[in-house]
């Protein structure tokens, strides 16, 4: 049976949203044991496939990532990561402090040998509902060309296994599509990716085309990737705010809104990247998934479903064999 360790205390609406998401997941799947790590008073789920592990501490969104992981040994997030390290769980999922979870992945779970820099990857929405994977989203602000090549290789393996894309297209985020565009990092990375015969590299892609399914995978450094992520997220949120203001500005508009209410809900759902699951920390020797901090029960459900598929496909072993080394 697949075993997934869950940090019950992580997230803006934790623990209730996390508990609700687990219950939703357990109704859909009977081949997974969920190990819930949290404060004693939140042992509320009664299910044969749920195991509660009491912890005395939690890591908050305001905690300093590295210090909190090292000092709060009995925190729910730390204990969940340790379960992956000790192989008592196949994966861990948390909607908590992103920096702390990355630190837990690095210092507790540990890197795959040969992977120089882990990367945080998430599947983002596109207009045609296919989605594209963006990495690195912020695990490393600075990166070398060879790091981005490793990102591309890891994402390629994951997209084949988890998203069932036979030959994923891979693009390099840049300020233009021409081969010679960009700074030193993108120019050197472009040359290395073009020479790599194990991936389907299609060249540079501009951020303005990302939602048009320009590529299945888009690689960049963590600084740029985080800016792309937050720009897309902020733009989508503000468009819907402006749309709401317009649709509620008059009686006529309110009546029209009532007619198209369901269509608007579908439109908003298309732009919700939590529908694709959480962000995966590639390069660590275990499966670590970061759900969005504002995750509701559906987002938690999707992150758990994503973890289940990745465990079934044995993604970490494949990454270790094909990208890692014995050094």
UniProtKB/TrEMBL annotation:
Enzyme Commission identifier(s): 2.3.1.274
**An annotated GO BP:** fatty acid biosynthetic process
Q: Which UniProt keywords apply?
A: Acyltransferase, Cytoplasm, Lipid biosynthesis, Lipid metabolism, Phospholipid biosynthesis, Phospholipid metabolism, Transferase
Pathways involved: Lipid metabolism; phospholipid metabolism
Q: Which reaction does it catalyse?
A: a fatty acyl-[ACP] + phosphate = an acyl phosphate + holo-[ACP]
Molecular functions (GO terms): phosphate:acyl-[acyl carrier protein] acyltransferase activity
Keyword hit for Phosphoprotein? no
> The organism sits in which domain of life?
Bacteria
The entry's localization annotation reads: Cytoplasm
Q: Does the keyword Cytoplasm apply?
A: yes
Sequence intervals crossing the membrane: none
Instruction: State where it is primarily located.
Output: cytoplasm
InterPro entries in alphabetical order: FA_synthesis (IPR003664), Phospholipid_synth_PlsX-like (IPR012281)
Q: What does this protein do?
A: Catalyzes the reversible formation of acyl-phosphate (acyl-PO(4)) from acyl-[acyl-carrier-protein] (acyl-ACP). This enzyme utilizes acyl-ACP as fatty acyl donor, but not acyl-CoA.
Q: What family does this chain come from, according to its entry? A: Belongs to the PlsX family.
Q: How does it assemble?
A: Homodimer. Probably interacts with PlsY.
Q: What is this protein called?
A: Phosphate acyltransferase
Q: What is the organism field in this record?
A: Macrococcoides goetzii
Its gene? Answer: plsX
């Amino acid at each position: 049976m697949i075993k997934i360790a869950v940090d019950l205390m992580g997230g803006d609406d934790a623990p209730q949203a996390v508990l609700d998401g687990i219950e939703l997941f357990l109704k859909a799947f009977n081949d997974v044991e969920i190990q819930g790590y949290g404060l004693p008073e939140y042992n509320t789920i009664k299910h044969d496939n749920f195991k509660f592990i009491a912890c005395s501490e939690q890591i908050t969104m305001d905690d300093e990532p590295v210090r909190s992981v090292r000092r709060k040994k009995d925190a729910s997030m730390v204990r969940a990561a340790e379960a992956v390290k000790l192989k008592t769980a196949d994966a861990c999922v948390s909607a908590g402090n992103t920096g702390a979870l990355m630190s837990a992945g690095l210092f507790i779970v540990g890197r795959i040998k040969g992977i120089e820099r882990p990367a945080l990857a998430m599947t983002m929405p596109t207009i045609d509902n296919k989605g594209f994977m963006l990495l690195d989203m912020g695990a490393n602000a600075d990166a070398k060309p060879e790091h981005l090549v490793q990102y591309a290789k890891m994402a390629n393996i994951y997209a084949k296994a988890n998203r069932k894309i036979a030959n994923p297209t891979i693009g390099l985020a840049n300020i233009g599509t021409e081969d010679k565009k960009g700074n030193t990092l993108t120019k050197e990375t472009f040359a290395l990716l073009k020479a790599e015969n194990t991936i389907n590299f299609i060249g540079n892609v501009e951020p303005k085309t990302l939602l048009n399914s320009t590529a299945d995978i888009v690689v960049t450094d963590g600084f740029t990737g985080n800016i792309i992520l937050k720009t897309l997220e902020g733009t989508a949120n503000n468009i819907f705010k402006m749309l709401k203001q317009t649709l509620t500005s008059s009686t006529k508009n309110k009546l029209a809104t009532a007619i198209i209410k369901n269509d608007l809900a579908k439109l908003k759902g298309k732009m919700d990247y939590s529908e694709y699951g959480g962000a995966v920390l590639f390069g660590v020797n275990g499966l670590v998934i970061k759900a969005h901090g504002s995750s509701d029960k559906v987002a938690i459900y999707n992150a758990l479903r994503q973890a289940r598929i990745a465990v079934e496909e044995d993604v970490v072993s494949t990454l270790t064999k094909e990208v890692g080394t014995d050094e």
